[in-house]
Amino acid sequence: MTAAPVETPADVSAGGTSGAPQKVDLRAARRAERRLRKAADRDTVPHGMRATPVGRVARTLLLTVAALVTIFPFYAMVVLSLKPSAAVDFPGSLLPWPLTGEAYHAVMSAQDVPRWLLNTLIYSVVSVVGVLLLAALAGYAFAKKRFPGREAMFWSFLSMVMVPYHVTMIPTFAMIAKLGGVDTYWGLIIPTLANAQAVFLMRQFIMGLPDELFEAARLDGCSEWQIFYRIVLPLLKPILATLGVFVFLWHWNDFLWPLVIGQSTDMRTLTVGIASLQQQNVPLNVVLSGSVIAFVPIFAAYMVGQRYFTEGVTASGIKG
Amino acid sequence: MAVVAEPTRRGRRSGPQARREARIGLLFVLPCFLLFLAFRFGPGVAGVLMSLTDYSLTGGGHFVGVDNFTRLWADPLFWQALKVTVLYTVIAVPGTLIASVALALITRRAFRGAKFFRSVFFLPVVTSLVLAATVFVWIFSTGGPWSTMVGWLGMSQSSWLSDDVLVLPALAIVGIWSRFGYGMLILLARMQDIPRELEEAALTDGAGPWQRFRYIVLPQLKPALFFLAVIETTASFQVFDAVYTMTGGGPANGSYTLVFQLYDAGFKYFDLGYASAIGVALFVLTVVVAVLQRLVIGKDQ
Predict the structure, then answer these.
(1) Which residues, at least 6 apart from B232, have a Cβ–Cβ distance to it below 8 Å?
(2) How close B155 gets to chain A, by Cα (Å)?
(3) Which of A121, A116, A271, A264 is nearest to A189 (CA)?
(4) Mean pLDDT of B274-288
(5) Residue ranges of the alpha helices (H) in A12-52?
(6) For A214-229, what is each residue's pLDDT tens digit?
(7) pTM here?
(8) What gap in Å lies between CA A181 and CA A173, rounded to an integer?
């Protein structure tokens, strides 16, 4: 695993040695440099490795087909959810005509789906806040503080990533059941706050922050809590955003744990509820309208967090 | 750089300041650590211990030794679940890896629209499999898009999900669809680091695209491929969401996976001791396969 990308203050070394101050249009210079680099890039890619016009067309064609195949389930989901229930036979059903919102009306006026939506929101949002806060605290301590047992604790955190979730799930369930946490929000949320990947990522990121910042704040008389709150947390913004989107999606999509812990209809999350709709004799368009409703926040989070994904995934090998 | 400050900052400290630092460090780690103790380590150990008892929610909790494991050994359903899980993995993991490599290769160089295509391919990764499953059931249904397509190839148009052999390829297609974007991203990141000089040298030696891929790119991708193989195998061993939503383990237990059996034993029959034994078996299987993969693929790292 590699460290999360961290901006190093390496290029602050712009100390000019020539005495005479030169008037330079920095923006123009940068533009020119970029142009030059581009041209150089073009020239250094050898002819045999550059895409020929035929190659370019083939590439576009291949990618378009792959993209259409990838998108197809989403398209079908949305179009079928907007159909009157009778019209779900292939292939006519894929034409976006005629459309109606009756499935959405049906699914939202049934008491269940709004409640499941609320449950999922509570589960996801509370978990995001909890996981981020706990992981930031622990990550900061692991990265910048020396205390007895630090290494042992950190490596035992990491080793738990290897153990399949299902091994720990059963005793966790037994414990939560004994404590009366079945069908409660706390029973659903609290066990999932222990997130090793989040702590690991935080630690990696914080290790890249310069110690001088904290030293300076300490000299200025900041308490440790103030340092964390005023210095560390603001610096963590990029990683908090990345991780926040990931944690949100993990919990929004989580299935097995909410399935076993939310046993009454009222305590289901959206994924569990939709799976239960799927198994009953609910018309397809109604099930799919539920899926679309559950998908909208996923899509929104993906759009908002998209630029973080490439970096986040490649930096950490985080699970999808 | 101010070199002067370096030694004092890194030097070993003791006394009240170090003690204060240790206290703060512990204080900051503690909330997280306690949660881990309660919900990860504790249950991890308890999971193994529970597999040696007849614990159930309705009673029991006596030490029964390896009874659960001998029961498991004699349980035809366990062997069915193991077979299904391994078969699923054998189809889904290579499929995912091949799709990931192919698409990473096609989108590796910058071109207009590359970003758009990459984000399209990653979208299934962030989508809940339960949601996707609701529409894939329709895709695979009799007379649905998939059946119609394989019908053009002369195959039967009946639903793959109701065929106890074809159900696994169908589930694997869903698995590949939902995972290849992740592999593609990991491989793309790795490909950026391959020195271009290597490929250029091969090019001047007259190597064609396939040879350059086979002898230059592929060896450089090995660590990333190994990482992906482990991640994807682990994920495939734990396949559950799509199975639960699309087939319920059927037809004729054709998609009855290990985690499905674990769920059944634990939360349908409340036989938590037995379910824990299945969990331990899953863990052992995961470790064995990871070690095997390391021996086969990751030998020279």
Answers:
(1) B92, B93, B96, B97, B179, B183
(2) 18
(3) A121
(4) 93
(5) 26-44
(6) 888 888 888 888 888 8
(7) 0.85
(8) 9
